[in-house]
Amino acid sequence: MNSNQKKLVFRIFVSGFILLFIFIFNIFFSIPAISQLLFFLVSYLIVGYDVLIKTFKNSLKFKFFNEQSLMFIATIGAFFLKQYFEAVIVFLLYQVGELFQDIAVDRSKNQITNVLHIRSEYANLKQNSVIKKVSPLEINIGDVIVVKPGERVPLDGVVLRGGSYLDVSSMTGESNFLSVSVGDSVLSGVVNVSGVLEIRVEKKYEDSTVKKVLDLIENVEDKKSKTENLIKRFAKIYTPCVVFVAFLMFVVPVFVFGCSWQVWLERCLIFLVISCPCALVISVPVSFFLAISKSAKNGILVKGSIFLEVISKINTAIFDKTGTLTKGEFVVKDVVSSEYSKEEVLRIVALAESKLNHPISKSIKNAYKKDLDLELVEDVEEVFGKGVKAKIEGKEVFVGNKKLMNDIGIFDVKEDIAGTNVHLAIEKKYVGFVVLKDEIKEGAKKDLQKLRELGIKKLVMLTGDKKEISESIFKELCLDSVYFELLPFEKVEKLEHFLKEGPSIFVGDGVNDAASLKRADVGIAMGAIGSDAVMEAADVVLMDDDLKTLVKFILISKKAIRVVKQNIIFSLSFKGLIFFLGAFGLTNIWLAIFSDVGISILAILNSFRALSR
Ligand code: ADP
Ligand code: MG
Question: What is the pLDDT at residue 129?
């Protein structure tokens, strides 16, 4: 509980105590009416003064109709009926409900940030062989920090000395150990498990991975779901209507038909209390917050509740191939060249790829096991969806697919149909190619099957890779459509075509696909922690690259929407029932008050039941 909530608890207790005091005292002695009124007023003001102030301030701004004013009108009416006790109780319970809701929202919000314990409180700064504990905010680029076993890496950097295993589970949601040694980059947020590491810091805290992940989660509220906005707009129209109906309920019977004003004032109060939309207004955001935090616990970062809502309705899932449906870890199967040795071809290709992050680049670097002299490489230019151009040992080198070779006037290119071919041309003369093989992710077929069971009708693959490979994957995974040899912008065009047919998600590892991630109804990036552009472009970031996590996310979204619907239906029908009873004079103000608070609490409990844990 925060200090405001504690204050409110105190006020509720004091006010409740005064009520109890009057109640008991009244049994034994009779308190004069005027002092009773005084006690009730004090109790009323203690528990409700902030509501009164808010109502007053709002009415100065000509905002007469909101939850608070409903409560205000209802209590004033009760005072007129000399139902002082009821008047105070209305406020008291209204505040208990508010308190409960406030705590529920806070708790669900906190859950979101707390599930990710990735921020470090300090960094061990090493200066002139002295180690000092300082805040990560004070560290500059180029500083050297020491991370001991058991500590969390506070900032992004490169290992200068030492070697260790890193536990990346907090960043990927999956327990996974990564071995690092001198020269490897290390992301902030991961835990050092075994050895002492000295790390040269490469980014300030503001730009670090940890900060980005936390920002992403903290800004969740910005993109509210349609239901949430709908409810807000609903409340805006609804409240004035309620007040107007209540007004008619009083005026028409009393002044037109000459009925008793006490009876109709009371009915009108009951109507006002029942009409308070608290349960709806609050339980919807609580459900969404809980779902978002549940996602975060499973390594899924959702940028707003709107995406939960959209994802529960999608028809089509569009996948990138490399790194999404396939592992993205290519194995070198063969190197073919008539002039150069295999070793030399691999070395030049590896040099050209050395500065890129494409799965092909990473795999080739791994395959060429020897150290690369990076000083030999200059002017590296990535040609998206085709390959890379660079200057190596002074010569112009092109490395990439057939399209890239065609671009530089080389048309006589042999291919090995079984794998992805990476061709090499030096000074625009064809040299040879490397054959790479990727594998479909384990369990991918089953996971896609589950997506179908969850209601996704169409599974599509878009890829820049060539026909033969794409078609074999298409068959093996039983997809509905496949489009191959696409450049990144052509992927977006295909995507637009599917978007026209119905709500679609795009799932990709983000390499070259930021535009598609942005364009889709929901762009989902896999295994993208650490890549700023991708985290920026995606609506949902899966911290690992497992398709099961995608299935889990869709399950959570569906559940959240179900709970929201349950709560809306439940509270509307219950209110309807009480209202119906009220119209026949079969209810009283007590029942109305308790049902209102009760519905709010039940709706919130229902959300917690379904979505926490
Ligand atoms: P995908 O759609 O499979 O994720 P990309 O759009 O990233 O693939 O790339 C499409 C094709 O372009 C790859 O299959 C490969 O032939 C070629 N390519 C892209 N980047 C590189 C690179 N860095 N080195 C070699 N070839 C590349
Ligand atoms: Mg890709």
Answer: 86
Q: Distance between alpha carbon 65 and the CA centroid of its chain, in Å?
A: 33
Give the whole-angstrom CA distance, residue 71 versus residue 250.
17
Active site residue 545: no
In the block, tokens 């990076």 appear at 374
Q: How far apart are CA 428 and CA 426, in angstroms?
A: 5
User: Which atom of ligand 1 has the smallest separation from the CA of 364?
Assistant: 24
Cα 192 to Cα 147: distance, rounded to the nearest angstrom: 7
402 band by pLDDT with thresholds 50, 70 and 90: very high
Per residue in 1-55, pLDDT (tens digit) is 788 889 999 999 999 999 888 888 888 887 787 888 888 999 999 998 988 888 8
The pLDDT-based confidence of 221 (bands split at 50, 70, 90) is low
CB 265 less than 6 A from any atom of ligand 1: no
Residue 280: how many other CB atoms lie within 10 Å: 22
CA of 383 to the centre of ligand 1 (A): 9
386 lines ligand 1 (CB under 6 A): yes
Taken in order 392, 397, 400, 404, the sign of the CA dihedral is positive
Q: Which of 321, 345, 360 to mutate to test the pocket of ligand 1 (most atoms within 8 A of CB)?
A: 360
> Are 315 and 457 a contacting pair, CB within 8 Å?
yes
Q: Mention the CATH class of domain 140-203.
A: mainly beta
| CATH architecture, range 331-437 | 3-Layer(aba) Sandwich (3.40)
Class of domain 299-326+440-555: alpha beta
Q: Please tell me the predicted confidence (pLDDT) of residue 133.
A: 93
pTM over 0.90: no
Query: Which of 463, 466, 484, 526 gets mutated to test ligand 1 (max ligand atoms within 8 A of its CB)?
Result: 463
Q: What is the reported pLDDT for 140?
A: 94
Q: Where are the domains of the chain?
A: 3-113+222-289+559-611, 140-203, 299-326+440-555, 331-437
421's CB contacts (< 8 A; 6+ apart) are 401, 402, 415, 433, 434, 435, 436, 466
Mean pLDDT of 185-196: 88
Phi, psi dihedral angles at 332 (to 5 degrees): -75, 120
Among residues 143, 156, 167, 320, the one annotated as catalytic is 320
State if residue 322 touches ligand 1 by the CB under 6 angstroms criterion: yes
